[in-house]
Amino acid sequence: MAFDHWLKGPAMRWAVMPVQLGLRAWVFFMLPFVNSGLTKWETFPFLKPEAWAWNGWPSLSGGATYQFSNSCSFCFNIRIWGSEQSPLVQWVFPFPETMAALAGVGEIVLPVLILIGLLTRLSALGLLTMTIVIQLVLPTGWPVHATWAALLLGIVALGPGLFSFDALFGRFARR
User: What pTM was computed for the model?
Assistant: First the structure.
């Protein structure tokens, strides 16, 4: 890939590095994925309800399971075309508890992986997929979701940068 080869030049690696670090920090600290993920759990080890304490194994909150089911008027259903109240196509998530747990884990783990630079591009693609699903669930939020998608696409295009576990493991793999 020519763009990737251009980015791997020595001057460009150092010139782009602040942008890469900034994008990774922005995704972790400024986008609402981690907070949204924490709301899906009643307890989460070392985070909720008390930070830095063993709070027991993660337990899914009733509200998250309820929102992923089809039993409320504002449920996480994919709506395509039409209005939110009467969509032309509406698809209900199967296995609401499993989907809520996967979303809750992904919203916490993927931003952490992006912040530390481990499996960065794959994690950004995971959050990009979640953003696309969120856009289909909440079609009116497209300006915010487009911003999130642009940030995540920037991480996919630029990569994690020199100060990341991906770069560290890449150096060890080349030896």
Answer: 0.83
**The amino acid at 117:** G
Pick the closest to residue 102 from 60, 142, 70 (CA basis): 60
Q: How far apart are CA 105 and CA 40, in angstroms?
A: 9
Local confidence pLDDT in tens for the 175 residues of the chain? 677 777 677 777 888 889 999 999 998 988 899 988 888 888 888 877 888 888 888 889 888 888 887 666 666 777 776 666 676 677 777 888 898 899 999 999 999 999 999 999 999 999 999 999 888 888 888 899 999 999 999 999 999 988 999 999 998 998 8
Handedness of CA 32, 117, 18, 145 (dihedral sign): negative
